[in-house]
Structure formats: structure tokens, C-alpha cells
Amino acid sequence: MTTETAPRHDRRAATTAQRRAQREQARAAARGGSGRARQLAFAGIVLGVLAIGAFLAFGDFLNRPATASGEINIQSSMAGFTPAVITVKAGSTVTLDWWTQDAAIHLQNGVHTMVAPDLGLNEALPAESSRTVTWTVPNKPGTYDVWCESCCGGKDSPTMHGKIVVQPADSAGEARGAA
């Protein structure tokens, strides 16, 4: 009595194919129904990253107290002035609520400055602080450049610039910061 057996390489190929099929079944079982869960997990991670980014980008504004009526809230940072354009009336007295969260190590002499020589504005703000600046706007309508002279590249810096728009005294509207 003789029984025929498959050659060794055929048996090995069959065993390998069987094991491969078992692994594929296990993978499919692990994935089964989890496609939706993966999408939700991915969406959650993306939303989390965006929320953290938004907090880092705009977190400076979260704990700021409200400014009094008529004050203009101005932030100085290494990225520039916020708002970048301030609109005021000629001859008016304006109160600027000026603040920074930049550390002294990033600032020359530990201060930001706000310089607009044509408007008689030359103020300094120590690192990580705030102050109120009361300024009488000259009676010179026009658009003027304002910059940080102390640490940010001075007048030649492409980022640490802003504009002050001085409207004629009889112009409608109040002094305000524009976005």
C-alpha cells in the first residue's frame, strides 16, 4: 500500500498560504467596524491641534480686561502692532491701552517703543507689561507710519510697523482701532 504525498515544497506553499489567509482574516476582523472610529479619532486629533494653535495664536487676548470706553487697545509683539491701523481725530485726546507679553530677553533694553515723529509720539513699554498712554493728536490729518525703534529693526523692519490715520476734526465717527 502506497500513499502519495505531495512534494515538500507544495506542502510548504500550502501552509504559507493558509497562514497568510489567517493573518488577513485577523487584520480584517481588527479593522471591521473601526473605519468610522478611525475617522472620528482623526477628526478629534485635527480639531485638538487646531484648538491648540488658535489658543497659541490668540491666547494673548483671552485674559485682557475690557478697555474703558474710548480707549484703543494696542498690543506690541515681535510680529508687529495689533491693530495694525489706528484711526483717530485730529486735535482729540486719545487714550491708548498699550501692552506686550514679550519677554525682556527678546527686546533691546527690555522695551518696545511706539515712534511716530510726525505726530510727536515716542513712547516706551517695558517687557511683559501694560500702560496707559494719553496722547493729544496733532491737528494734521493724514496717514502716518508708526514703528518700534528699540528692538525690532527700527523703521526698516518689515513687521514692526503700523499706521495711524488722522481724520479731520469734523469727520464723523470716534477715535478707534481698526483691524
Can you offer a commentary on this structure?
With 179 residues, the protein is α+β, with helices and mostly antiparallel strands. The protein is built from 2 helices and 10 strands; from the N terminus they run ααββββββββββ. The strands form 3 sheets. A 4-stranded mixed β-sheet has the order 2-1-4-7, with no helix packed on it. The protein has a 4-stranded mixed β-sheet with strand order 8-9-3-10, with no helix packed on it. Strand 5 and strand 6 (121-126) form a beta hairpin.
Provide a quick synopsis of the model.
This protein is of the alpha+beta class.
Please tag this protein with its features.
Immunoglobulin-like, rod-shaped, 2 domains, four-stranded mixed β-sheet, alpha+beta, 179 residues
Topology:
Elements lengths: L7 H24 L2 H25 L12 E7 L2 E3 L2 E5 L3 E7 L11 E6 L4 E6 L3 E7 L5 E6 L13 E7 L8 E3 L1
Parallel strand pairs: 1-4, 3-9
Antiparallel strand pairs: 1-2, 3-10, 4-7, 5-6, 8-9
